[in-house]
Write a structure and sequence with these properties.
This protein has 388 residues and is an alpha+beta fold. Helices cover 43% and strands 14% of the residues. The strands form three sheets. It has a three-stranded antiparallel sheet with strand order 1-2-3, covered by helices on one side. A three-stranded antiparallel sheet has the order 4-5-8. A two-stranded antiparallel ribbon has the order 6-7.
């Protein structure tokens, strides 16, 4: 049996006389059900509350609620399509759908809404995901998605009264291994740049996107941000390149479940929109790219041969090929961004400046990601004290 929807858990207060003064030994407990109020009185707060609590156990309060027999899988699918689809960017909705379909529905999707308890969710979702070796971030996304969905079931749907997520406990983040930040060493940077800019015997570049790699390495932008650059974003005279958005890969829902497309998306935060100084290496890379990839001011800087936007997959394949040629162990393309950041930190750049260049929403994020690099820089600084 599901609880009939009540507005809140009820209220308890002292009765007042016609002049508005509180009356001693006169307490009132009220609760609203379907727009009608139920009132209970007592000489003490405890007495009035006890009558209200007793009522909550009655058959009148415990009437079945329409929709409570619905399976979670059906309800959460409806919530996504009718509510979240209208409020989220395509990439965010894709991530939500992935969380629901992979980490919630297979675990508890067959339960009816009126069967769900905090114990079921704790054991069959949160604990199960942790036992399966999922990351803290993955578990947190499942927790947040379920919590928001259950709140929607309470209001405005009025299907359940109590949120079964109450009492569900997230594991401590300290229980999870910190993911190692991979960045290139000084020697690897040299090998990478040499491989990226290598040419054939006829002088033609082996990798058309080779200079795009050195440009990314010297600006620290995300791959999607680099792919979204247009030549109009580059202020050559001012030595600045402007980042205004990102190229993302999203599901094309008009073409079918297995179809994907790329689209331009505005930055997630106000800090994502930023201007990045162009150093000598980045300027040289831009000059080389302009020789073969300039199709007008509105065209992409990292364009394909026909002048259209390049793809994330193509960029990634080129990166992996360059790593192999440079004899560098495999790593993600985000390594270029991490290398840029750690190089700045190693050169004692203020972490606030590093955070600003990376487009982080807060300095705390920068600290958390590059804590090991910051600690190493601190050790070197303290070591110089012996020379005072």
């Amino acid at each position: 049996m599901a609880l009939r929807r009540a507005v809140g858990e009820g209220s308890v207060y002292r009765r007042r006389d016609k002049d508005g003064k509180e009356i001693k030994d006169a307490w009132v407990a009220q609760i609203a059900i379907d727009g009608k109020r139920k009132t209970f009185t007592g000489k003490t707060r405890k007495e009035a509350t006890a009558k209200l609590d007793e009522y909550k156990k009655s058959s009148e309060f415990l009437l079945p609620t329409a929709g409570a027999e619905m399976k979670l899988e059906d309800f959460i699918t409806e919530w996504m399509s009718s509510v979240k689809r209208r409020t989220l960017k395509d990439t965010s909705y894709d991530r939500l759908e992935c969380t629901v379909l992979n980490n919630i529905v297979p675990c508890i999707g067959s339960y009816k809404l009126n069967e769900l308890t905090y114990g079921i969710i704790q054991n069959e979702v949160i604990n199960r995901l942790q036992d399966d070796g999922k990351s803290y971030s993955t578990i947190k996304k499942a927790y947040n998605s379920l919590n928001e969905c259950m709140k929607y079931a309470i209001f405005p749907k009025e299907i359940i009264v109590k949120n079964p997520m109450l009492g569900v406990v997230m594991p401590s983040q300290e229980q999870f291994d910190t993911k190692e930040i991979r960045y290139l060493s000084e020697e690897e940077i040299t090998r990478f740049k040499n491989a990226a800019t290598a040419v054939w015997g006829n002088g033609r570049p082996i990798y058309p996107l080779g200079y795009a790699m050195t440009l990314t390495l010297n600006t620290g932008v995300r791959v999607g941000e680099a792919l979204a650059w247009r030549w109009s974003d580059y202020d050559e005279a001012g030595g600045i390149i402007h980042t205004n958005g990102t190229l993302v890969r999203v599901r094309d829902r008009t073409e079918g479940e297995r179809s994907w497309k790329q689209q331009f998306q505005t930055t997630k935060t106000k800090n994502g929109k930023r201007s990045i100084p162009v150093n000598a290496a980045a300027k040289a890379a831009l000059n080389e790219l302009k020789k073969t990839r300039y199709f007008g001011e509105d065209s992409p800087i990292l364009a394909q041969a026909d002048g259209t936007f390049n793809t994330i997959d193509n960029f990634t394949r080129t990166f992996e090929a360059i790593l192999k040629r440079a004899n560098i162990r495999p790593c993600g393309i985000h390594t270029l961004r991490h290398t840029f950041a750690t190089q700045l930190i190693a050169k004692n750049t203020d972490v606030k400046i590093v955070s600003s260049l990376l487009g982080h929403s807060s300095v705390e994020i920068t600290y958390n990601i590059y804590v090991h690099a910051l600690e190493e820089t601190t050790k070197k600084a303290v070591a110089t004290l012996c020379d005072i």
